[in-house]
Amino acid sequence: MNMEDCIYKTTCRVCEGSDLVEVLNLGSTPPANAYLSREDLDKPEKSFPLVLYFCKTCSLAQLRHVVNPEILFKGYHFLTSASTPSVLHFKEYAEKAIIPLITSPKDLVIDIGGNDGVLLNYIKDKARVLNVDPADNLASISEEKGVPFYPAFFTSQTADELLEKFGKAKVVTANNVFAHTDPIRDVFKGVAKLIGEDGTFIFEVHWAKHLVDESAFDQIYHEHLCFYSLHALKVLVEATGMQIFDVEIVQAQGQSLRVYAAKSRAPSSNVERILAEEKVAGLTDEATYHAFAQHVEENKKKVVALLKELKSKGKKIVGYGAPAKSNTLLNYYGVGKETLEYLTDTTTLKQGLYSPGTHIPIVSPEKLLTDTPDYILLLAWNFKDAILEKEQALRERGIKFIIPVGNVTIV
Ligand SMILES: [Zn+2]
């Protein structure tokens, strides 16, 4: 491991304490988005430790090994607008949470990590908008939608630049990006400056409750440095002079929290309610995370034994979906091309590439129109209800699906 490529963090990102305990070690794996071309297959791959820790002080679950973002985010393959559920989610988000806060077309709405402009696209006719995102391959896609693009990793310094160029923001949003952010206190400090006394900060993060309840360990990959509880977010927000005044649970990326923060606004009862719910779920308790890790290890044993048995009987098995998360699962379970003939994925940019670490070819789902495997390992298991319904025709042809996370089942 080249030390310039990966640093080891000694303190908690949120509370800056050092009382961190290891809960789950997933081994050393390549970055989950480092898909390979055919020419790459013979070259050495970079891999880094993937280990989850729990902060006993503020309850943030987090990685301590931080892979250089230049390695992780170069040539980002996932476009938010390629996913229909995401597009609908952001439309509702814009209409319900953001547009009611806009009082003038001169108001500025900034989306940190706005990807291809999917959220601001619904705001651009109501206010000035700006998409601040480091993935420069997304700039032209965002701008074609009429959403101006500012290429940067957002920091408090970026906030100073934005303040000077554009003035204060009425609303700042950031969705599914704080899992990726290492200097998170600095980012929140920057947002606090940008919104001033009157602005509102709205963000969505994966909720650690989903990780624990569903044993969704495949959300853990090097890009996802943090798994937030509302307890940890409260510490983070208050450290930068803001306050959480509302929160709701939204069904995005499994289960997420949509959090509303501002300088001074009376909190709704939702805040206390969700904090209490977290206490009941044990999210502030180290023992909950150890139980989670044990469940994950047991699932691995079950799935590995099942696949081995099926292969020994000569069964043909393929994978459904090649999202980043699938690479955590495949690498941790040790399931490679000798077990899965191919992975199907609707993202055309991924088709023709190979999964990092496990080197399984990725093909179009059309392959399954003519090919009939015995089993499909459902790697996009978090969409299992929708997928099983959509793929009724495959099931009618006798193909069985294996659910590899949560309760391991064959359907
Ligand atoms: Zn902490």
The first-to-last residue Cα distance is 41 Å
The small molecules bound here are: zinc ion
By CATH reckoning, the class of one domain would read Alpha Beta
**Spans of 5+ residues with little confidence (pLDDT < 50)?**
none
Mean pLDDT over all positions: 93
Radius of gyration in whole Å, from Cα?
21 Å
The coarse overall form would be globular
Spatial sequence of strands, sheet with the most strands: 8-7-6-9-10-13-12
CATH homologous superfamily (4th level) name of one domain: NAD(P)-binding Rossmann-like Domain
CATH architecture assignment name of one domain: 3-Layer(aba) Sandwich
What does this structure look like?
There is one protein chain. This protein has 411 residues and is an alpha/beta fold. The chain has a domain at 314-410: Rossmann fold. It has helices at 69-73, 84-98, 139-144, 156-166, 184-195, 208-213, 230-239, 269-281, 286-312, 324-333, 367-370, 384-390, 392-396; strands at 6-8, 20-29, 48-55, 61-63, 65-67, 108-112, 128-133, 149-151, 171-175, 200-206, 226-227, 243-250, 256-262, 317-320, 343-344, 362-363, 375-378, 400-403, 409-410. It is globular. The two termini are 41 Å apart. The model has no long low-confidence stretch (mean pLDDT 93). The structure holds zinc ion (ZN). Zinc ion is lined by residues 12, 14-15, 17, 55, 57-58, 60.
